[in-house]
Amino acid sequence: MGSAALVAVVVGSGIQATDLSRDVGVQLLANSLATVFGLGVLIVLLGPVSGAHFNPVVTLAAWFTGRRDGEGLTAQEVAAYVLAQIAGATAGAVLADAMFGRPLVRWSTHDRSAGHLLLGETVATAGLVLLIFGLARVGRAHVAPVAVASYIGAAYWFTSSTSFANPAVTIGRAFTDTFAGIAPASVAPFIAAQVVGAVLGLALVAAVFGRPAPAQTGTSALHAEPELAAPTLP
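Above: the chain sequence. Below: its structure as tokens.
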């Protein structure tokens, strides 16, 4: 549900923006603001339910970092999360198109295959992973709803790719031929860039914060405020 709502916000606000303005800058501003507010609300609302897992690379990173102490996600849980994220993201794109009277499924024609866009996705995803897991390392995971939403809003503007930073969202946005869409041929390279970015993000966490301290009794640092993925995003 969280992934569906997130993509509905991203795609729906993109459609609304293009209907109301022909200025691409205004369109991007409207799309990014709606995404910031929507993502923050969804993390606050669904964090206590599912850990606000809207993003497969963050889910995989949470599994990788927690696999040694046995308190993290299991491989079966990761598989269930990723399937739910992709299904939700696809449903969210279809829902947004339905709300605006667009064809429910129309493959996007928005090509995003240029190398500089892939670099932007790598940077955006690395920064997102560094933020989420860095906050957990310093005991500030409680500010993640604001911090993650703010980062995605900034990354809309400082990355060339407008910061998808989420494989599930990337797949979902291929199903809508609107402002926020991505051509199916561009999906695999984008996801590859996101995976590379996630690996780099974890490396940066280790470099900046060093080895994690032993988990406190009762709750691991990462699960005290669940893995707060984001989003995501766009």
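The two ends are 16 Å apart (CA to CA).
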